[in-house]
Amino acid sequence: MASDPLNANPTIISPSDLPTRRGRASSLGSQATGSLLAGLNPVSSQMLDDPFGPAKSFSSNNSDSEDDEVVETIDEQEIYDLISTISDPEHPLTLGSLAVVSLPDISITPHSPFTTVTVLVTPTITHCSLATVIGLGVRVRLEQSLPPRFRVDVRIKEGSHTTAEQVSKQLNDKERVAAALENDTLRGVLNKMLETCR
C-alpha cells in the first residue's frame, strides 16, 4: 500500500516550463564547472556530503576585511532553484514539477541582522499524509544551503491542506524539527528526497 500514491494523477509541469536561471541540460556543456551553491556559501557543498552528520567547522582563508562586509543578495528565483529539484516522497517527480513549490509562493524579507525566507508549500491533495515530510525536506535543504544570516519559514499554503495550520506549526517548531531529524527512518526518506537536488 505504501507504494500506491494517494493521488495517482497529480498535475505535472514539464521541467522545461519551470522558471529557472540555470541553463538547460543541452546548453550547459562545459559551462557547468561550479556548483549552484558555490556562490552562496563556499563551504555548503562540503557540508551537504552528509546532511545529518556532525557539524563541521570551516575557517575562511580570506582575511581581507573588505570582503567580509560584502553580502551577496539572494532572491526568490535562487531559492526556487534550490528547492524545486527536491524529489516528492510519493511520486517519482520533483516538487517543482508537481507545483508543490512555486516561485510566487516564495518571499524574502530582510530584517537586520537576519533575512527571513518564507516558502509556502502546496500539497498535491488536501489530505496529503506526507505534507509534513515535504515541508521538512524544504526546510532541511534551505538550512543546509543558505548562509547563517538567513532564517527559514516553511508553511503549508492556506486552504491547500485540511490541517495546514497544525502542519505549519510543526514545521516551524525547532524542537519538533530536531526530534524528527533524529529519527533514522525519516532521515532516510529525507536523504532520498534530497538526492535529486542540483
Describe this structure in words.
The protein contains eight helices and three strands. It has 198 residues and is of the alpha+beta class. Strands 1-2-3 form a three-stranded mixed sheet. Strand 2, helix 5 (131-145) and strand 3 (150-156) form a beta-alpha-beta unit. The radius of gyration is 17 Å and the shape is globular. The two termini are 30 Å apart.
How much of the sequence is in beta strands? Answer: 5-15%
Across the major sheet, the strand order is 1-2-3
**Structural class, please?**
alpha+beta
Unreliable stretches: 24-48, 57-67
Radius of gyration: 17 Å
Shape: globular
Mean pLDDT: 78
* Strand element count: 3
Straight-line distance between termini: 30 Å
Seen as an oligomer or otherwise, the chain set is single chain
Helix content: 25-40%
Secondary-structure element series? HHHHEEHEHHH
The helix tally amounts to: 8
Q: Quick one: biggest sheet?
A: 3 strands, mixed
